[in-house]
Amino acid sequence: MKIFIDTANLNEIKEAADMGLLDGVTTNPSLVSKEGHKDFRSMLEKICAIVDGDISAEVVAVDCEGILKEGRELAKIHKNIVVKVPLIKEGLKAVKIFHSEGIKTNVTLCFSASQALLAAKAGAYLISPFVGRLDDISQNGMELIQQIVQIYQNYDYETQVLVASVRHPIHFVESALIGADVCTMPFKVIEQLAKHPLTDIGLEKFMSDWKKLQK
Ligand code: E4P
């Protein structure tokens, strides 16, 4: 399963990339705004220079023509740019056209299996179901991942399932058990993945026992 970081913070991207485990980056307008990147293009160029993998860049237009115009410009920035498109009717129209032009898309804000099926039919490269936001409204987000993976397998769709809105390591492990293709996470969750209190306690004991030998 590929690991993406879900942030527009360049220091976090660098730090995660240094761990040697990063396969890509997802951003969205809220994350870009949070970091105060007024120059979106320059931010994307910097990210592409740090990570050699899929870099999702979201359009802000909500009509097909506008999405196509923005997406084509974004795709010119770097070969690794994946144009992130909202899962609305106009977005699906644009995804179909991008697909015919060889432009990769990440269809975002997916909250149902029917939406995911339409995105695959339109030719999406990635589908982003938001598990944490479903959990927030008492709907099991991981059940949706299970349904989408099953549906895509039934019909051999090539669209990759990217688990988004991940809040904790259990989302990550369940994504892998289900067979999702990608999991995108905030930096904090990536750090949590390697952490275990028994590892820390065990290491401390090994070190103190070793020191006793040196006395
Ligand atoms: C996905 O690509 C989105 O950027 C992201 O995962 C949304 O997560 P949130 O629900 O924590 O905002």
Description:
The chain has 215 residues and is an alpha/beta fold. The chain contains 11 helices and 8 strands. It has helices at residues 10-18, 29-35, 40-50, 64-77, 89-101, 113-122, 131-136, 141-154, 169-178, 187-194, 197-214, and strands at 2-6, 24-26, 54-58, 81-86, 105-110, 126-129, 160-163, 182-185. An 8-stranded parallel beta barrel has the order 1-2-3-4-5-6-7-8, surrounded by 7 helices. Strand 7, helix 9 (169-178) and strand 8 (182-185) form a beta-alpha-beta unit. Helix 4 packs across helix 5 (89-101), helix 5 (89-101) runs parallel beside helix 6 and helix 8 runs parallel beside helix 9. The longest helix has 18 residues, at 197-214. The termini are far apart. The structure holds erythose-4-phosphate. The site of erythose-4-phosphate has 11 residues, from helix 7.
Structural class: alpha/beta
In terms of DSSP E residues, the strand content is: 15-25%
Percent helix among the residues?
Answer: 55-70%
Helix count from the secondary structure assignment? 11
Spatial gap, N to C terminus = 46 Å
Ligand roster: erythose-4-phosphate
Strand order of the largest sheet: 1-2-3-4-5-6-7-8
The strand count comes to 8
**Uncertain regions: pLDDT < 50 for 5+ in a row?**
none
